[in-house]
Specification:
Elements lengths: L1 H14 L4 H19 L13 E5 L5 E5 L7 E4 L2 E4 L10 E6 L6 E2 L4 E2 L2 H4 L9 H4 L24 E11 L6 E10 L3 E3 L7 E3 L4 E9 L2 E5 L4 E3 L4 E4 L13 E4 L2 E4 L9 E3 L6 H8 L8 E3 L11 E3 L8 H7 L7 E3 L4
This protein binds calcium ion (3 copies).
One calcium ion (CA) binds next to strand 20.
Length: 337
């Protein structure tokens, strides 16, 4: 029995390392390759140098940069931190205070705008323009707070607006955008409800553009030099020339953005293809013109939170008035380059 058991044990040992010759060949090949590599002594001199380039920035400025400096990270010191390497303490920004009026919610008696969207709780905390297809440059996704929308009086928020900085070298080129908030008295403020609007853009000369989701856009005729301290641009009193002809409507001594571009396609149109009137009818159901739709809708031309096709304070009449009540086939075209 013991001899038999020993013989069995030998058989097992012989059968197990079947692939050993292949493995051994592989390891030897690796060693040979490594040996051959270590004997190749033809490495030339390597020069490690600084690198760098110049990159364009929004607004036409440029920045020079290098990769030659070692950044070793932060270190703590008493009362603060030190960072090895160059550092920009904060992002370059310019600030802008635009004043403007929208015709839709404008009240010619008070000279202010209604804030029915806000008081009715319809005004969104997030800016609507990204979702509507407006192209943001640097801006977008702005969010405000319930506390900001709780403010009443002349500084109550009417709606979100869309501001553009266009290149001082070319008024067709949008350098930076921000969604901002419009107060009842026309002040356009940042998402905190009070501050001038901040753009991540270098100081310089810009054309200022203003858009609203159902009014015709407007652009300043001349550039405005912006910097870290807020600069005011008044589009409500006629003191700031605008691009094109009749880009703003005059009511009393005020200038207002033309209401009625429900489709947001750059015109106010009452009849014909893609007109702005039909969109209102569709919104109230398309069949019964006396129906209404409540909420935050682009078809709500006068921003009273109700889309209305007929009857008092309807949203259709301002479109007809703005193309000319006696010339319903006319089209009022947005004045932009
Ligand atoms: Ca104000
Ligand atoms: Ca239109
Ligand atoms: Ca309405």
């Amino acid at each position: 029995m013991p001899r038999s058991a020993k013989r069995t044990s030998v058989v097992v040992h012989e059968a197990a390392p079947k692939h050993e010759p292949i493995l051994r060949t592989f390891i030897i090949t690796l060693l040979l390759l490594a040996s051959a590599g270590s004997q190749a002594q033809s490495l030339g001199t390597t020069l490690v140098s600084c690198g760098g380039d110049r990159s364009g920035l929004p607004g036409g400025a440029s920045i020079s940069w290098s990769i030659g400096e070692v950044v070793a990270g932060n270190g703590s010191v008493t009362g603060g931190q030190v960072t090895q390497g160059m550092q920009q303490p904060s992002r370059i920004a310019v600030r802008l205070s635009v004043a403007a009026l929208l015709e839709g919610p404008y009240n010619a008696v008070t000279g202010q705008m209604n804030d029915a969207l806000r008081s009715g709780g319809w005004l969104p905390l997030s800016e609507p323009y990204g979702a509507l297809g407006y192209t943001h440059v640097g801006g977008g996704g702005e969010v405000t707070t319930g506390a900001v929308l709780a403010v009443t009086g002349v500084n109550a928020i009417v709606d979100w607006v869309f501001l553009e900085l266009r290149s001082g070298a070319n008024n067709s080129v949008v350098s930076a955008t921000r969604s901002a908030l419009l107060q009842r008295d026309g002040d356009i403020v940042d998402t905190d409800g009070v501050s001038p609007v901040r753009f991540n853009a270098p100081p310089g000369a810009y054309y200022i553009g203003l858009k609203h989701r159902n009014h015709l856009s407007v652009l300043t005729l001349s550039t405005v030099v912006l910097g870290g301290t807020a600069v005011g641009v008044n589009l409500r009193d006629g003191s700031t020339p605008t691009y094109g002809t009749n880009a703003l409507k005059t009511i009393n001594s005020d200038r207002v953005l033309w209401a009625g571009d429900v489709r947001g396609n750059g015109d106010v149109k009452y009849t014909g293809g893609n007109n702005d009137r039909d969109a209102i009818l569709v919104k109230v159901g398309g069949v019964t013109p006396t129906n209404t739709a409540t909420g935050y809708w682009r078809e709500d031309v006068n921003l009273d939170a109700v889309v209305k096709y007929t009857g008092g304070a309807n949203d259709r009449d301002p479109i007809l008035v703005n193309v000319g009540s006696l010339t319903p086939n006319n089209v009022r075209v947005q004045q932009l380059p």
